[in-house]
Design goal:
The complex is a heterodimer of chains A (402) and B (244). Chain A has helices at 2-15, 17-55, 82-91, 125-129, 142-147, 156-162, 206-214, 232-246, 262-301, 303-315, 320-357, 365-391, 395-400; strands spanning 59-64, 95-110, 113-122, 134-137, 151-154, 172-175, 178-186, 201-205, 221-226, 257-261. With 402 residues, chain A is of the alpha+beta class. Chain A folds into 2 domains: 2-52 and 267-400, no CATH class; 78-255, no CATH class. In chain A, a hairpin with a 2-residue loop joins strand 6 and strand 7. With 244 residues, chain B is α/β, with parallel strands linked by helices. Chain B has 7 helices and 10 strands. Chain B has helices spanning 50-57, 80-90, 106-117, 121-134, 150-162, 180-196, 208-211, and strands at 8-17, 24-34, 39-43, 65-70, 73-74, 91-94, 168-172, 200-204, 216-221, 224-230. The longest helix of chain B is centred in the last third of the chain and has 17 residues, at 180-196. The chains are: A alpha+beta (402), B alpha/beta (244).
């Protein structure tokens, strides 16, 4: 009986191609929209997260000054000293490494090409705190770092502009007044989350930068790596305590430095994109509901024709159950077909949009399954219940239905 | 009365529609026997109860009171599904409005009752083609109702009604939508089926010309059988006319 029912249902769908198409159109668009929106939203979240992960998670950034601005208009708070770096590294539990940074700007010159760039003086700890692999060359040795040798690791933007994209490692160029050996090339990071080209940088041992460029022992910025086992907030509080003591800040006065937790930014941004994804998904879900109403409309419009059909089937000896089963199979087949087309359509749209939006291609089985299940339920509900009403009619009344 | 048990027997059948003030008694106690192999025309003005009787005889409706025996079995106690199965096995229907499935070929329309009977595909095809051949439309098997004339559609409907080799063919004004020439073709077809396949035919009509093809004519009036006439058709032996 089930085989017969399937045959009857498929025949009916085939015979009413336009009606079937209109019926499933709403489902196709609804399912397609929901899956596309949710998937793209998740991809955007993933993109934001991976950008932040590139900054490094579990990193504290410590700068002099309050918040982002200088604040107050008073005298500029002093930079840190190498002793502060050593103190944090040795006295705070949960700190894996502390990378001091001294920054300067200079014009680099190589065979007639010149390029203005940022010099970042640091220690080997810089590469422990955050993942930033070299694509070529090597890091400086402890001896080179200690001696303040003029060796440098360059970012890809510098290579593109100064060396015209050629092989840079092993070359020597002038940086300001200093003759400098390229020993390494950094992998490309791209735009930072807050603007600025992260690859436009020359990294050198901090002593070299202090001696040859800034002329003092100041540390502009510290990056502190935090052990996964420790809460960044605890470590942050300990460092605050230590630095207040070292900088002689009496109780009641505010910090003249700020500690920035990258994990906090990560959480905030992830939360924002997740909220946006939910909103967009809600809008798309409305279109799925509208699709369901479309199905209901088509079913109700065709109910006259279908009521007579039910009457004929009942009169020639179909049991009401058989007629209902046929309509149920029809509704399920239609809405599942619509759901499947919607899923395929969504994948096509996602594949087309991901390069445009610069987000990674992702596939989330859960949302696909959910959207498909909803489409099936809508189809069954709106397709089945008008039929049930018709099948409950007396065959004579159903036949007379105009 | 017939010398064997009648195919169909109604006793004291009433049918009441509605309740209270709007109550309407369509049948007021009908007694009727129909012998197997008969060709019966049911006539009467509208409201006389002829359609109600046909619906009850077609197991589409149930009497309010009284008994309905079909081949000696009580029908009035059967439920909806049991009556559907009885229709499936023993009855065939032809309607005034043809009632074919649209966008469905003649062959598929004729196959439909066999599908519900669960016949195999090959058996279905053969039986449906044979039925179409009987009504002279085997050449038109792949045409949809929209591509067929009214007379052809009605012949497809007849093929659909007889494809299951029913005991009884119920026709509700089968010529009501056709011109006189087509009507006569349909009547000749029904007469032939009654004679050659020994199918009992019950036909509602208001046209005396069509009723003239029947062997027995039952006149209804005001919810009761008014009178029953027996016709003798040329070339037939009077013994076969058993009604009354």
């Amino acid at each position: 009986m089930l085989g017969t029912t399937f045959l009857l249902a498929l025949r009916s769908i085939r015979r009413h191609i336009l009606r079937s198409f209109l019926t499933i159109l709403g489902i196709v668009i609804g399912v397609g929209a929901v899956v596309t929106m949710v998937t793209l939203g998740k991809a955007t979240t993933a993109a934001v997260q991976s950008q932040i992960a590139a900054l490094g998670t579990n990193i504290l950034q410590i700068r002099p000054g309050q918040g982002f601005g200088r604040g107050g208009g008073g005298p500029r708070p002093p930079d840190f000293k190498p002793e502060d770096v050593a103190a944090i590294a040795s006295q705070i539990a949960g700190v894996t490494a502390v990378a001091p940074q001294a920054q300067a700007s200079a014009t680099a010159i190589y065979e007639g090409a010149n390029w203005s760039t940022t010099i970042n003086g640091t220690t080997a700890a810089y590469f422990q705190v955050q993942p930033w692999p070299l694509v070529n060359g090597r890091q400086w040795t402890p001896q080179e770092e200690q001696a303040g040798k003029a060796v440098c690791i360059i970012g890809n933007t510098v290579r593109q502009n100064l060396f015209r994209g050629g092989e840079a490692v092993g070359e020597r160029f002038r940086l300001g007044d200093v003759s400098c050996d390229v020993i390494g090339l950094l992998s490309t990071r791209g735009q930072a989350g807050f603007g600025g080209d992260q690859d436009d940088v020359v990294i050198m041992p901090i002593k070299t930068v202090q001696r040859r460029f800034t002329g003092n022992r100041d540390v502009r910025l510290m990056l502190v790596g935090v052990d996964q086992a420790y809460a960044t907030s605890t470590v942050q509080a300990s460092i605050t305590q230590l630095l207040r003591e070292r900088r002689n800040i009496t109780d009641g006065r505010e910090d003249d430095f700020n500690i920035f937790d990258t994990k906090q930014i990560s959480d905030t941004l992830t939360g924002t994109t997740t909220a946006l994804t939910r909103i967009v998904a809600a809008v798309a879900a409305i279109s799925l509901v509208v699709g369901g109403i479309g199905i209901m409309n088509i079913m109700l419009v065709s109910v006259t024709e279908r009521t007579r059909e039910i009457g004929i089937r009942l009169a020639i000896g179909a049991v009401a159950r058989e007629v209902l089963l046929q309509f149920l199979v029809e509704a399920v087949a239609l809405s599942c077909l619509g759901g499947l087309i919607g899923l395929v359509l969504a994948q096509a749209v996602i594949a087309g949009l991901t390069p445009l939006l610069q987000v990674p291609w992702t596939f989330d089985p859960r949302i696909n399954v959910i959207a498909f299940a909803i489409s099936a339920v809508i189809g069954v509900v709106f397709g089945y219940f008008p039929a049930r009403r018709a099948a409950a009619l007396n065959p004579i009344d159903a036949l007379r239905h105009e | 009365m017939a010398n064997s048990a009648p195919l169909i027997s109604l006793r004291g059948v009433t049918k009441v529609y509605g309740e209270g003030a709007t109550q309407f008694q369509a049948l007021k106690g009908v007694d009727l026997d129909i012998a197997a192999g008969d060709f019966v025309a049911v006539m009467g003005p509208s409201g006389s109860g002829k359609s109600t009787t046909m619906n009850i005889l077609g197991c589409l409706d149930v009497p309010s009171a009284g008994t309905f025996l079909f081949q000696g079995h009580h029908v009035e106690t059967l439920d909806r599904d049991q009556r559907a199965l009885l229709r499936r096995r023993h009855l065939g229907f032809v309607f005034q409005g043809f009632n074919l499935l649209s966008r469905t070929t003649a062959l598929e329309n004729v196959e439909l009752p066999l599908l519900y009977r669960g016949d195999e595909k090959r058996a279905r095809r053969q039986a449906a083609m044979a039925a179409l051949e009987k009504v002279g439309l085997d050449q038109w098997w792949d045409h949809t109702p929209a591509e067929l004339s009214g007379g052809q559609q009605q012949r497809v409907a007849i093929a659909r009604a007889i494809v299951t080799s029913p005991d009884v063919l119920l026709a509700d004004e089968p010529t009501g939508n056709l011109d006189s020439e087509r009507s006569i073709e349909i009547m000749e077809l029904l007469t032939g089926l009654n004679r050659d396949s020994n199918i009992t035919v019950l036909m509602v009509t208001h046209e005396p010309d069509m009723a003239a093809f029947a062997r027995t004519v039952i006149h209804f009036k005001d919810g009761l059988v008014e009178r029953i006439e027996a016709h003798h058709r040329p070339g037939e032996t009077p013994e076969r006319v058993e009604a009354n």
